[in-house]
Amino acid sequence: MRGSLTVEASLVLPVFLFAMILLSYLAVLVKSQDEIQWALTRVAREASAEYGVSGNKVLVNRLYCQKKLNDYLGTGGNAVSLAGSEIVKKNDEIDLIATYRVKLPFRLLQIQTCRFRQRVHTRAFTGVERREGDRTADQTIVYITETGRVYHRRRDCTYLQLSISQMKYEDIPDLRNEGGGKYKPCERCTKKRQISSQTAVWITNYGERYHISRSCSGIRRSIKKTELSKVGKRTPCSKCGT
Q1: Backbone angles phi, psi at 169, to 5 degrees
Q2: Is 4 helix (H, G, I), strand (E, B) or coil?
Q3: Which of 72, 85, 140, 206 could form a disulfide linkage to 39, CB 3.0–4.6 angstroms apart?
């Protein structure tokens, strides 16, 4: 049909141009939001650092942050307002809230402008808090047992992992622990006890004592975490203490 392409183009072209203009406007709007967020974040970081240096709440206030924001955005007036912000009000926190309006290129349901709100929340720098990773040598965390004579740097050290075996008393003289030492009677559970050759006793792989009571405190090991400076006369474990 003659002229059909002209009619179709006249119908489709305005829609296409409108969509392209709308996409271009959205791209400009996203770019503007990124610039405002960048400026807002920079103002918050600088305010946090300057508060830590001066400790002056009067210096770091809303007007101070508003002026810096305007300088970064290049706006002479308060196109982007920080009216709802809180500067070092509670717990040394800086809460910057930027509000602004953007005029639409066309009227949408009687709406000519849209209101946007962006926010950055941070804490004012008030000093350095010591972390566990900043411990000195004397504050290094080690592990000890209630009756042990050494300290361990690793919680999973094999000397802390007891392997308990039941044996007959008559076999004890021929047994050796992992260190090659002989087993001696436990001063807690074998004291003043009659032991026959067939009496069942318990030993551990790295222990130096044999026990006739499975519930003896010498077997039930309680591992404690403490600082190196508090281990007393304990020596380092030969396996993990170096």
Answers
A1: -60, -35
A2: helix
A3: 72
Structure tokens belonging to residue 10: 């006249």
Tens digit of each residue's pLDDT (9 = 90 or more) over 146-169:
777 888 888 878 777 777 888 899
| Residue whose pair of structure tokens reads 């300057």 in the numeric block | 50
Contact 240, 157 (CB under 8 A): yes
* pTM for this predicted structure: 0.42
Q: Which residue type sits at 75?
A: T
In total, the chain counts a number of residues equal to 242
Q: Residue 178: which of 193, 163, 200 has the closest Cα? A: 163
Contacts of 159 (CB under 8 A, 6+ apart): 150, 152, 206, 237, 239, 240
Residues 216-241 have a mean pLDDT of: 83
Encoded tokens for 12: 């489709």
Looking up tokens 């009619």 gives 7
